[in-house]
C-alpha cells in the first residue's frame, strides 16, 4: 500500500503551503506513481504474505498454552479464536469497502473520527513494536544462546564455532540487522516480500514436520505416555491462571493491520475473503499440529517458549542434528516474518507522527529516517529487555485484543454505513465481552502471580 486512502484525506492532507505536493490521490492510483510498473499482486503471494503475518513468535507459546488448558480444551480454543478472527477480518473488509477506506485506521476514523484512528494506530504500534522486540530476542537466543537461572542455553552459532567476539549476542544481532533485515525492510510494497513469505511458511512447516517425526518415532518405541487431556486444577488461583493463555492464542492470530495493505495491492481485490480463509486454514493447521505434537512430546515439561525444549536429547538418533534444524529453521522463519510486521509498524507510526504529510512511500527521506529510527529502537529493546514472556502476555491482553477484536466489533456496532446485520451485532457484542473479560482476568492473574507464589498448574 503506497497511495493515500480516499477516506483518509480528511484526516491526512498535504500541508497547505506545499502546492507542489499532491493534495489527494485517486482511489485507483497504484504504485505506478513510482514508475515501478507494478500491476497488482497475485492471490498466492497474498496468501503467503498474510500467512507470514499470522505465524510469528506466537506459535512457540501455543504448546505451553495448550498444555495449561489441557489438550482438548486447548485445541478447541485455537479453532474458536480462528473463527472469531475470520469474523473480525470480514468486518474490517466490509466496512472498508462501504467507507471506501484503504487502511484499517481509515475505517476507524470513519467510525470514530481522528481520535479513534489515533488510538487504533497506537495499539498497532504497541503490538507490532512489542512483537518485533520479541522476534529479535528469540533470534538472539537461537543464534548466541541465553542464560536462565544461572544455566546457559547455548546458541547454534556458539555451539558450532565456539565463543568469539563475533558469536556474542550483540555482534550477531548487528550482523542480522545489517545483512538480513536492512534489505528486506527497504521494500515499499508488501508484495515484494512474497517469496520470502513463502519460504517463511515453508520453514514453519519444517518445524512441525520434525516435531511430528520425533513424536512418531517415540510412540513406536513406547517412550511417550498419554498427554493430559483436561486442565489440572490445584486451587482457585490455578483456575484463574487458565485465562492467561488466552492472550497467547489471540496474539498468534493478530494480522488485522496488514489485511487492507495486502488487499490494496491485489490484481483482484474481490479474492481477499478467499485469501483470508485459505491463510487462516493453513495457519490453524500449523498451530494445531505444533501444539498437539509439542504437548505430546514434552508434556508438563513444555516450556513457555517450546523452542527452548529443543536444546537437549530428544531420545532418538541424530537428536543433536534435529535440535539444530529446529532452531535454525525457526530462527530463519522469524527473520522472514520480521519485515512483514515491520511494514505495518512503519506505516502506522508514520501516520501518528506525520498525519498531514504525503504518504511515506513518496518521501524517501522520511521513509528511511523512520525505518532507521524504528530499527534502532527495536535493537536497543532486544539488547536490554531481560524477560519477554510477561510482557508478551500483557501486550496480548491489551493492544492485541484491541486490534484483533474490540475495534472491529466497535466499528460494526457504530455502523456508520448502515450495513451491519443483526447477526453482526450479536457477534460483535460477544467479541467485546470475551475480549474484555478474558483480558481483565489475564492481566489480574499476571499481576497476582508477580507478588504471590501459587501452586498453579503443575505436573
Quick summary:
With 459 residues, the protein is mostly helical. The chain has 15 helices and 2 strands. A two-stranded antiparallel sheet has the order 1-2.
Task: Describe the secondary-structure layout.
Layout: H1 43-54, H2 58-69, H3 71-99, H4 104-144, E1 145-148, E2 151-154, H5 156-161, H6 169-184, H7 194-220, H8 236-241, H9 245-251, H10 259-264, H11 272-298, H12 319-353, H13 364-384, H14 389-414, H15 422-451
Antiparallel strand pairs: 1-2
Helix pairs in contact: 1-7, 1-11, 2-3, 2-9, 2-11, 3-4, 3-11, 3-14, 3-15, 4-6, 4-12, 4-13, 4-14, 6-12, 7-11, 7-12, 9-14, 14-15
Keywords: Amino-acid transport, Membrane, Transmembrane, Transmembrane helix, Transport
GO molecular function: L-amino acid transmembrane transporter activity
InterPro entries: AA_transpt_TM (IPR013057)
Order of SSEs: HHHHEEHHHHHHHHHHH
Low-confidence stretches: 1-36, 454-459
Q: In which order are the strands of the major sheet placed?
A: 1-2
The domain tally reads 1
Q: Tell me the β content.
A: under 5%
The description of the largest β-sheet is: 2 strands, antiparallel
- The total beta strand count reads 2
The helix/strand class is mainly alpha
Query: CATH H level: which superfamily?
Result: Amino acid/polyamine transporter I
Tell me the helix content: 55-70%
Tell me the number of helical segments per DSSP (H or I, 4 or more residues long): 15
Characterize the overall form: globular
CATH architecture: Up-down Bundle
